[in-house]
Structure formats: structure tokens, C-alpha cells
Design a protein that fits this description.
Shape: globular
Order of helices and strands: EEEEEEEEEEEEEEEEEEEEE
Structural class: mainly beta
Number of strands: 21
Length: 193
């Protein structure tokens, strides 16, 4: 395990690969524990594989597991726990998330102005103490994403789509918790499809 107390900004086009394939296999996983307010990892055109990131708690405002804002990003076989936002992507033109697991995050994945983003076989579990605001996937603005397989669970809003967002999905399982009154699977904004 590694503990980080300040944001790590990863150089352009770097690959971070954990030592174990199954990221939830504690105590043997490649685990990073973050106490950072802000982003734990800031990456540009990078790849992250086979890791488990644990945050300071979903109630810690602006805590983010992985943040990326340039051209391309690949996240494979990564678990994120206890962040306000598990993954925040912006300005990604080619993105691929595969076998990502987020849990106890107020927002599992936040996407802003991204194209050609594929989210495949991911488990986005928004379960947290305050289920009234839990969002699985938040397509904020002008984004196109393809969602293939996996699950969105424990949400108040499973997928929230902002202005001019497009989502294509197939084979995705949705399940909200019983206490989530008026939970919505997909909430679409102006011009969303």
C-alpha cells in the first residue's frame, strides 16, 4: 500500500500498472490510499491498470480519484472507493474505461466535453450514506459515450445527461436502492439523446 497526502501529477503519456490483476483482492492489491482534498492522481494521455484507490470519504468536497483532461485516457481494472468523484474526465477525444469499479463515491464517473468514450463492463455503485444525491455517471456537457455491459447501482440518478450529450448503451444493468425515493435511471437534459 501507498499513502499520498498531496496530488500526484503524472507526466504525459505514462502508464501506471499495479502488481496484481484483481484490484479488490486486499491485502494483496496494488493499493493507494489518499488523504488529498482535490485530485489524488492527475493524468494526461495516460493509462492506469490493476489498482485500487481509496479516498478520504465521499463527504470530502472536491476529492477526486483520477482526473484527466487531455486527448486520451485508458483506465483498466481499477477500483475507486470513498471519493466525492471517482473519475473526472474532460476534453478526452479517445477514452476507454474497462472493468472499472467505483463505490461510495457521490459521483462515480464525471464526463465533460469528451468524445469517443467507451465505458465497458464497469460496476458503478453509487451507494453511500446520503443516497439522495448519488449519481452513477454524469455526462455534464457536449459528450458522446458508449456504455457496454456492466451495472449502475445504488443511485438517486443512474445516468445524468447534460446539454448536447449522446449516450449509446447495451446490456447495462440498473438497480437503485430501496431507500432512494424517486430514483431515476437516466435523466436527460436539453438536446441529449
Amino acid at each position: 500500500s501507498y499513502k499520498i497526502t498531496a496530488t500526484i501529477t503524472v507526466p504525459h503519456a505514462q502508464t501506471w500498472r499495479g502488481a496484481t490483476f484483481y484490484m479488490d483482492n486486499l491485502p494483496h492489491s496494488s493499493r493507494i490510499v489518499s488523504t488529498v482534498v482535490g485530485a489524488a492522481l492527475v493524468m494526461q494521455a495516460a493509462m492506469v491498470e490493476n489498482m485500487r484507490l481509496e479516498g478520504p470519504g465521499d463527504a470530502v468536497v472536491n476529492s477526486i480519484g483520477i482526473q484527466s483532461g487531455a486527448s486520451s485516457m485508458t483506465i483498466h481494472n481499477v477500483s475507486l472507493y470513498g471519493f466525492e468523484t471517482g473519475i473526472r474526465l474532460s476534453n478526452i477525444w479517445y477514452g476507454y474505461l474497462d472493468r472499472v469499479h467505483t463505490t461510495t463515491c457521490a459521483v462515480g464517473i464525471s464526463v465533460n466535453y469528451c468524445y469517443n468514450l467507451t465505458i465497458q463492463n464497469c460496476r458503478i455503485n453509487a451507494r453511500r450514506a446520503d443516497t439522495s444525491t448519488a449519481i452513477g455517471i454524469d455526462l455534464v456537457d457536449r459528450s458522446m459515450a458508449t456504455l457496454i455491459g456492466g451495472a449502475v447501482e445504488g443511485y438517486q440518478t443512474g445516468i445524468r445527461m447534460g446539454v448536447s450529450c449522446t449516450l449509446q448503451g447495451t446490456g447495462v444493468y440498473f438497480e437503485s436502492d430501496a431507500p432512494s425515493v424517486n430514483a431515476v435511471g437516466i435523466k436527460m437534459g436539453t438536446g441529449a439523446s
